[in-house]
Amino acid sequence: MYRFTPPIFLLLLLLITLSTVLLTASQSTHQDDQVREEEEEEDTPITRFQQYLRINTAHPTPDYASAVSYLTSQAHSIGLTARTLHLTPSKPLLLLTWAGTQPSLPSSLLLNSHLDSVPAEPSKWSHPPFSASLTPDGRIHARGAQDDKSISMQYLEAIRTLRKTTLPNPIRTVHISYVPDEEIGGADGWGRFVESEAFDELRVGFVLDEGQASVGDQLRVFYADRCPWWVILRAVGAPGHGSRMYDGSAVENLMRSVEVVGKFREAQFDAVKAGLAAPSEVVSVNPVYFKAGIQSGEGFVMNMQPSEAEAGFDVRLPPTADPDLLKRRILEEWAPAHWNLTCTISERGPIRDFKGRPIMTATNDSNPWWSVFSNAIVAAGGKLAKPEILASTTDARFLRQRGIPTLGFSPMTNTPILLHDHNEFLKDTVYLRGIEIYEHIISALSSFKGSST
Ligand SMILES: *[C@@H]1O[C@H](CO)[C@@H](O)[C@H](O)[C@H]1NC(C)=O
Ligand SMILES: *[C@@H]1O[C@H](CO)[C@@H](O)[C@H](O)[C@H]1NC(C)=O
Ligand SMILES: [Zn+2]
C-alpha cells in the first residue's frame, strides 16, 4: 500500500509559507500603527494646540524664544504680521496684527494672553505636564491647557477660519499680544508694555484677556480683578519671665489685634456663606504667617515672653471696596497705637484708575463693546453667566487702570477649574467649541463701527 510520506522539503515549505503569512500579518498591523501615528502628526487645530503646549514656558525658566517662534510661524501661516518687542532683554513680547480695512476708525481690538505658566510637579501628574497627551476621552493634559495657552491658540484658529470664510479682512484692526511674566506679577511684561510708545500706537479701544473655566454650561466673564494688599501687623511690649502674667506683652498685644482681624474676616465670610455676596465681591482676609519667640537651636526659649511679635495677612479688595475707609479701619482697629501696634500696608497694584474711578469694566449699555460682545455669545449659541469679579489678579488690571474696557474670558464650559493645579487638562471638544465662539466674537467686535472710542 502506498503511504504518502511528505518529503521534508514540503514540510519546510509549509513552515516558511506559514511564517511568511504570520510575518506579513504582523507587518501590516505595524503599518496600521504608523498610519495612526501619521494621523496624529497631521496639521489640525488639536495638533497645533498640542504642539504649543509642548513648549515648556513654566517658571522659573520659561522658554519664551520657542513659544514666540512657534506663534510667529502660526501667525505667518494665516497672513498676520508679527513683531517681537524686547522691552526687557530675554523676555520677548509678541505682537500680531490683522489690519483693518478702515484705518480711520479711532481704536483697535486687542486679544491678549500670556506666554508663561506656573511650574508643574511631574511626579504628581498622571501624564507628563509637557506631553500634551490626548487620552481616549478627549482630554488634552498639559500645564497651560486652561491657563492660558488655550486662548492663545484659539484666537489664531478663529482668525484662520474667518479669513477662509466670512471675514477675509476685518473693518477694525485686530491686535494679538503674547506677553511674558504674567504669572510672576507682570512688572517686566504688561507693566512695561503699558508704558511703552508701542502700546500707545496700537490705540486699543477694547481688550479680551483670560478668564476661567466654568463647571456648568454657562460661559463666565470677568469685569474686574481684586487688588491685593499685604498687611503686616507688628506689636511690641514689655519682655518678661514666662512664669509671670502681666499686661502689655508683645504677643498679647498681637493676639488682641488678631482677634479683631478675625472678626472682620468672619463678617466678610458670613456674607459669602449666606449667599449675599460672591467670594470675590467681599474683602477677603487670610492670615499667612505669625512670627514671635526667641529662637534657641531648633526651638524657642520657653520661659521668656518676647518683646516683639508680627503677623502677615493677604487682603484682597474688590473694586467696590472703599480703600480709604479700609485703610482707616486697619490703622484704628487692627493696629491701634495704644496697644503698641504698628502696621504696614503694601498695595500690590492700583485700586483706582487714572481718573480716580473704581477699576472695572462696565457690563451694561453704557459700554457699547459689552453689547457687541454679549450679543455675539448669544449668536454663537452660548449662554453667558452673570459677570463676575475675578478672585485673583491678571494683567487686565494694567489696561483697566488706563480706563480701557477689558473683559476676562476663556470659553471653557463643563470643565473643572484646574489652573495652577496638578493634572490640568482641557477636552478637545471644549477647545474646538471655544474656537467657534471666538469666531463670532472676533467677527462682531472687529466689524463694529459704532464706538467713538
Ligand atoms: C508698650 O511697649 C512698651 C515697651 O516697648 C511697654 O513698656 C508698654 O507697657 C507697652 N504698652 C502696652 C499698652 O502694651
Ligand atoms: C453701568 O455700570 C456702571 C458701572 O458698573 C455704573 O456706574 C452705571 O451707572 C451703569 N449705567 C447704566 C446706564 O446702567
Ligand atoms: Zn493665566
From TrEMBL:
<keyword id="KW-0862">Zinc</keyword>
<feature type="compositionally biased region" description="Acidic residues">
    <location>
        <begin position="35"/>
        <end position="44"/>
    </location>
</feature>
<feature type="binding site">
    <location>
        <position position="210"/>
    </location>
    <ligand>
        <name>Zn(2+) 1</name>
    </ligand>
</feature>
<dbReference type="Pfam" id="PF01546">
    <property type="entry name" value="Peptidase_M20"/>
</dbReference>
<feature type="signal peptide">
    <location>
        <begin position="1"/>
        <end position="26"/>
    </location>
</feature>
<feature type="binding site">
    <location>
        <position position="420"/>
    </location>
    <ligand>
        <name>Zn(2+) 2</name>
    </ligand>
</feature>
<keyword id="KW-0732">Signal</keyword>
<dbReference type="GO" id="GO:0006520">
    <property type="term" value="P:amino acid metabolic process"/>
</dbReference>
<feature type="binding site">
    <location>
        <position position="114"/>
    </location>
    <ligand>
        <name>Zn(2+) 1</name>
    </ligand>
</feature>
<protein>
    <recommendedName>
        <fullName>N-acyl-aliphatic-L-amino acid amidohydrolase</fullName>
    </recommendedName>
</protein>
<keyword id="KW-0479">Metal-binding</keyword>
<dbReference type="GO" id="GO:0046872">
    <property type="term" value="F:metal ion binding"/>
</dbReference>
<dbReference type="GO" id="GO:0005737">
    <property type="term" value="C:cytoplasm"/>
</dbReference>
<dbReference type="InterPro" id="IPR036264">
    <property type="entry name" value="Bact_exopeptidase_dim_dom"/>
</dbReference>
<feature type="binding site">
    <location>
        <position position="147"/>
    </location>
    <ligand>
        <name>Zn(2+) 2</name>
    </ligand>
</feature>
<feature type="binding site">
    <location>
        <position position="183"/>
    </location>
    <ligand>
        <name>Zn(2+) 2</name>
    </ligand>
</feature>
<dbReference type="InterPro" id="IPR010159">
    <property type="entry name" value="N-acyl_aa_amidohydrolase"/>
</dbReference>
<feature type="active site">
    <location>
        <position position="116"/>
    </location>
</feature>
<dbReference type="InterPro" id="IPR052083">
    <property type="entry name" value="Aminoacylase-1_M20A"/>
</dbReference>
<dbReference type="InterPro" id="IPR002933">
    <property type="entry name" value="Peptidase_M20"/>
</dbReference>
<feature type="active site" description="Proton acceptor">
    <location>
        <position position="182"/>
    </location>
</feature>
<feature type="binding site">
    <location>
        <position position="147"/>
    </location>
    <ligand>
        <name>Zn(2+) 1</name>
    </ligand>
</feature>
<feature type="region of interest" description="Disordered">
    <location>
        <begin position="27"/>
        <end position="46"/>
    </location>
</feature>
<dbReference type="GO" id="GO:0004046">
    <property type="term" value="F:aminoacylase activity"/>
</dbReference>
